[in-house]
Write a structure and sequence with these properties.
Largest sheet: none
Helix content: 55-70%
Structural class: mainly alpha
Strand content: under 5%
Number of domains: 2
Radius of gyration: 25 Å
Distance between the termini: 20 Å
Order of helices and strands: HHHH
Shape: flat
Number of strands: 0
C-alpha cells in the first residue's frame, strides 16, 4: 500500500471514529494494544524518577548562551551566509 493510500485510510478511520458515540470510541480504542497499559503489564512495583525542571532558569541559560553566541560571531560572515542561503532558496523549485 502506497503512502497516499495509507494516509487516506488513516484519515477515513479518524473521520469514522469522530462520528462514533463516546462508548463505541472507548471500546474501539481498548482493542489497541498499549504495552504496559492494557497489555504486558508486570506485577513489579517500579518507581519512576521525575526530573523537576526549572523552566525559568533553563530559559535564562539559553538566552545567555544566545547572547554570547551573537556577541562572538562574525556579523559580516553571518550576513553573507544568510544572503547566499536566500539566493539559493529562490532557485530551488517548489515540489508539492
Amino acid at each position: 500500500m502506497g503512502v497516499w493510500q495509507k494516509q487516506l485510510k488513516q484519515a477515513s478511520q479518524k473521520c469514522a471514529l469522530k462520528k462514533l458515540q463516546p462508548e463505541s470510541k472507548h471500546a474501539l480504542i481498548a482493542e489497541r494494544i498499549l504495552c504496559g497499559v492494557n497489555s504486558f503489564k508486570t506485577n513489579e512495583k517500579t518507581t519512576i524518577e521525575i526530573l523537576d525542571v526549572d523552566n525559568t532558569r533553563v530559559r535564562e541559560q539559553q538566552l545567555d548562551r544566545l547572547k554570547k553566541l551573537k556577541a562572538e560571531r562574525n556579523d559580516t560572515e553571518v550576513t553573507k551566509a544568510l544572503d547566499a542561503l536566500t539566493e539559493a532558496a529562490k532557485t530551488i523549485p517548489v515540489i508539492y
